[in-house]
Amino acid sequence: MKNLKIVVLGLALFGLSACGGSDSNNFGAGAGTFTGTNTTNNTTNPPPAQGSFNFTFTTNGNANATALTNSGPLAGSTTATGSPTNRLQTIFAQNIINGQTILLRTLTSTVAKGSALAPGDVFTYDDNLVTPGAFADYTEQGQPVMKRWVSTGGTVTIDSISETTAEVTVTNLVLTPSLEGTNTASGQITINGTATLTF
What we know:
Elements: H1 2-17, E1 51-59, E2 68-72, E3 77-81, E4 87-98, E5 101-112, E6 122-126, E7 133-141, E8 146-161, E9 165-177, E10 189-198
Parallel strand pairs: 6-7
Antiparallel strand pairs: 1-2, 1-10, 3-4, 4-5, 5-7, 6-8, 7-8, 8-9, 9-10
C-alpha cells in the first residue's frame, strides 16, 4: 500500500512539473501530457505511436547523471501546433525506483518558429522561449523537494518531420539551476542525444 501511495504521488507531481516555463516566461501550461490506451476498444482509441529517446547527462552538481532513455508507446509525449507544424513541445520522463522511493526525472523541450518546421532547422536553447528558438527545463522530483534546471545554451536540430513524427538531435544542451527560491539544484548539466517524437 505504501508503494502505491508513492507511485500515485509521483504521477501527481509529474502533472504539476511538466508544464514548465522559464524564470521569466511561463508557456505551454497544460500542454504535453501523456496519452493512455483504451484496452477495451482500440478501434476508436488506438494505442499511441511508438517513440524513443536517448539522452546522456554530464554534471558537476547534484543532478542524477544516469542516461535518460526510453522507448515504446509512452516514450515522450509531444504536442504539435500549427498547420503545418511550427511548434513542438515534448515531455520526456523516467522513473527511478529505489526501494520505497521514486525519483521522477522530467526533461521538457519546446521549439517554435514563425513558419513551418523543416528538416535542417537548428534552434538555440535560451533561458526563455523566443520565436524562432528553443527552451528546455529539467526537473528531479523526489523526497523531500524538487530540483529544477533551465536551458542556457546548446542546440536542437530537426532531422526530419512529417505530419505525425519528427526526429531531433540535441547537442550540448546546457542547463543551470533556476532562480526559484526553494530550488535545491546545483551545478551545470550538459545533455546530448536524439529522440523520435510522435504526435
